[in-house]
Structure formats: C-alpha cells, structure tokens
C-alpha cells in the first residue's frame, strides 16, 4: 500500500499527444521547411520542449519553444482529461492521500496547458521543468518532489506513460505504474503495475 500517489501530466492525466506532435510538425514545416512524421517525432513525448528541440538540431531554442507553445494553442481543442482521472483525484483527496505531479512542462506551460482543466486543487505538490537542473529520465525531479512533500520513496508510486517516467522512478527508488490509456509502447516498459483505467490505481493507496 502507498501513501503518496505522484503523476506525470501529458499522456497520464490529460491527452495532449495530438496537440504536442501536431504543433511541432507545423513549427518544423513553417519555420525550418522540414517535414517529419508524428512517428519520428514521438521521442519528444515526456521530455522538456527545449531538450526536444536541441535533439532536433534547432538553434535559438527559447525562441523556437515559444513559437511551439503558441502553435499548441491552435490544437487546444484536441486536449482533454482522460476518462476516470477526475474521479480518481477526488477519491484520493477523500482518502487523504498525498498527491502531486512531476512533469517535464515548464511552470508557464503548466499554467497554460494544465491548470485550466481544474485538477490542481486535488494535487498538492507540483515539480515542473524549471524546478530542477536535470530532467526526466534523470531521477532529480522525483527526488525533489519527495524532498518537498516529505513523502517516503518506499511509500510512493509514480504514474506515467513513457520509458522516461519509468527510468526516473526506478532511479529515485520509487515504484512505477504505467498508464496504459496514454502509453504508445506498453510492452517496452517494464513497469511494476500496468493500469488499464485510472480507477485501478485506487486499491493500492492507503486510506487515512
């Protein structure tokens, strides 16, 4: 049983894949005259935008990242909360579980892309990309969360959808649960738990 339940955001709490990849495709086409398939760009899911852009060999990363975020606005209609997530967060709050998010979004992206969905009042702590020097798959963001919240690694579970999330949890000494509803390659990620639906998480969380 766990006392702390920590979540990734994109692909775990909210569906953003279409928005992230569609806007990146548009950025590359409009600004760099590069055409890439969403399959070839899927590696960006789960790591900070600035890291993704550097891997694509793009200079002036801050400028490109701002343009990418602006383009994301055009795809906002495709972003939604996964079915069952709201209820799970409500149930966790009623059980007095310690909750929060560890995300590769910057704080500004967190405010723009996540806060409007109204889930934050059920999530006590948030670690964004600005809060640490190193990012997922490095364990620093999750270790920072444990330090800030007072949660114990052995009593915590991290829920995510990518290999980066798994590696971050593993190296932080935290058990990992895979959100199958947002995961592209479930067979490639050796999670301790694989959850079909958000409600499957609840039985693992200790009641207070």
TrEMBL record:
Molecular-function GO terms, alphabetical: phosphoglycolate phosphatase activity
Identify the domain of life.
Bacteria
Keywords carried by this UniProt record: Hydrolase
Q: Name one GO cellular component term.
A: cytosol
User: Could you mention a single GO BP entry for this protein?
Assistant: DNA repair
Q: Does the keyword ATP-binding apply?
A: no
The keyword Ligase is assigned to this record: no
An example of a Pfam family matching this protein is HAD_2
Q: Identify the NCBIfam families for this entry.
A: HAD-SF-IA-v1
Protein name (database record) = Hydrolase
Q: Give the source species.
A: Paenibacillus antibioticophila
């Amino acid at each position: 049983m766990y006392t702390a339940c920590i979540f990734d955001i994109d692909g775990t709490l909210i569906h953003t894949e279409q928005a992230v990849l569609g806007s990146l495709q548009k950025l590359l086409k409009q600004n760099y005259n590069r055409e890439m398939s969403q399959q070839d760009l899927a590696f960006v899911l789960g790591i900070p935008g600035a890291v993704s852009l550097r891997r694509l060999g793009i200079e002036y990363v801050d400028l490109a990242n701002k343009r990418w975020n602006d383009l994301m606005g055009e795809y906002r209609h495709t972003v939604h909360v996964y079915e069952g997530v709201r209820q799970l967060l409500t149930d966790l709050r009623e059980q007095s579980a310690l909750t929060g998010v560890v995300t590769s979004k910057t704080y500004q992206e967190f405010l723009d892309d996540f806060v409007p969905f109204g889930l934050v009042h059920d999530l006590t702590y948030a670690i964004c990309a600005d809060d640490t020097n190193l990012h997922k798959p490095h364990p620093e963001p999750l270790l920072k969360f444990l330090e800030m919240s007072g949660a114990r690694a052995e009593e915590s579970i991290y829920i995510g959808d990518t290999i980066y999330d798994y590696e971050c949890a593993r190296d932080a000494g935290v058990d990992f649960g895979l959100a199958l509803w947002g995961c592209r390659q479930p067979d490639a990620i050796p999670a301790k738990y694989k959850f079909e639906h958000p409600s499957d998480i609840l039985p693992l969380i200790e009641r207070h």
